[in-house]
Design goal:
four-stranded parallel sheet, 15% strand, binds pyridoxal-5'-phosphate, Aspartate Aminotransferase, domain 2, 2 domains, 17 strands
């Protein structure tokens, strides 16, 4: 075994009908925002997730932005968000002139800590009429955005039992969790509107892309309207509200259709990768794994380990052409979010950030490459 070859973290895997469907778009000229692949891709994603409607968008961030907007989030609102997430979740809130209100992470699941959330809602908020407010400054809390971090999920029954006591719309950031289920129900179907992402490192990819899913016909129509510049007339440039040019183009949706055909096999491969890493790395140095609840079946999107020897391991792997990445920097450490309200006891996000690293998990990684990764991890810290 040698590792002369670079082993990537999470590559797109174009193994099916991508060329054929893209060629079809090019041959017919249907490359832009209208076309049969867009509609087909939307329906395939919605069907897979068990939702009625899918609305394709240029990326997951745009899908989140529109989902929040349609959930009624307004300027100066707060939106409750885990501190440990990718920056796009927070940005989508900021685009509406609202601010993230950050909750620390659960030490084992790495999702939003539900004990903290419960305590925060019961002690620091008040309901007036049909709205929820943060007592300290009187600002409205417009929504809560659980993020299914690394394709994992928190206890969604408990989440619902906490949140349903308050007038608090939920918008799931399910961008990483296509294929994950809780008690057999798919990520993305626990809120009236939710967003998936199909950027280059996701379980399926359209290069860049996203889909909003919903069961509500009126919301679906409005989401489609807003993502297509709110054009209200077929034959005139009449736009009836401020819309967005957020529609996914047909040529990318064509890739998406081909990728959706492969999704079941990708999920299977991700599970093999998870099983392999868990078997090989259990008991190696102080390595720990992200915990999963028995009711959760994850899509295994990006395998991430935890070790106090994070830096030494990262340096060794990257020096050996095995691309590994630290977790995202928590939102409270970024300049534009450092002054956000941050609910915590001890800062667990910081500990997770300083101890976790993601390791190669592409669906097209070979068994030999997997063996090289674990061999080098053992060489570095075993
Ligand atoms: C947690 C999370 N939220 C939002 C996004 C945004 O998705 P996109 O990159 O498609 O805009 C991503 C993916 O990058 C993500 O991982």
């Amino acid at each position: 075994m040698s590792n002369d070859k670079f082993i990537a973290l999470s590559l797109p895997n174009m193994a099916g009908n991508e060329w054929k469907y893209v060629k079809d778009c090019l041959d017919t000229g249907w490359i832009s925002s209208v076309g049969s692949y867009v509609t087909k891709f939307e329906q395939m994603v919605a069907d897979f997730a068990g939702a009625k409607y899918g609305i394709a968008a240029v990326n997951g961030t745009a899908a989140l932005h529109i989902s929040l907007l349609l959930s009624g989030v307004k300027q100066h609102d707060y939106v409750i968000l885990p501190n440990l997430t990718f920056v796009a979740s927070a940005n989508s809130i900021k685009y509406l002139g609202a601010d993230p209100l950050l909750i620390d992470a659960d030490p084992l699941l790495w999702q939003m800590d539900l004990d903290l959330l419960e305590e925060f809602l019961s002690t620091q908020t008040e309901v007036k009429g049909k709205e929820l407010f943060y007592k300290k400054d009187g600002r409205r809390i417009g929504a809560i955005m659980p993020v299914h971090i690394l394709g994992n999920m928190c206890d969604m029954d408990r989440f619902a039992s906490i949140v349903n006591q308050y007038p608090l719309p939920v918008v799931e950031d399910a961008t990483e969790a296509l294929g994950t289920t809780y008690k057999g129900k798919s990520a993305g179907t626990f809120s009236p509107l939710a967003a998936f992402s199909f950027n280059g490192n996701k379980i399926i990819s359209t290069g860049g892309g996203g889909v909003i899913v919903t069961d509500d016909e009126a919301l679906a129509k409005h989401a489609k309207h807003l993502t297509t510049t709110a054009k209200a007339s077929a034959d005139e440039y009449y736009h009836d509200e401020v819309g967005y040019n957020y529609r996914l183009v047909n040529v990318l949706a064509a890739i998406g259709v081909a990728q959706m055909e492969l999704l079941p096999s990708f999920i299977e491969r991700k599970k093999q990768i998870v099983d392999f890493y868990k078997k090989e790395l259990t008991g190696v140095a102080d390595i720990r794994f992200q915990q999963e609840l028995p009711d959760v079946n994850t899509n295994g999107w990006l395998f991430t380990i935890q070790t106090d020897k994070q830096k030494a391991l990262l340096d060794h792997l990257n020096a050996n052409k095995i691309l590994s990445r630290r977790f995202w920097m928590p939102m409270n450490k970024l300049p534009m979010y450092k002054d956000c309200v941050y609910i915590r006891h001890i800062d667990r996000s910081d500990y997770i950030y300083n101890t976790c690293l993601s390791i190669p998990s592409s669906t097209n990684i070979t068994d030999e490459e997997l063996a090289i990764v674990t061999r080098e991890i053992k060489a570095a810290i075993g």
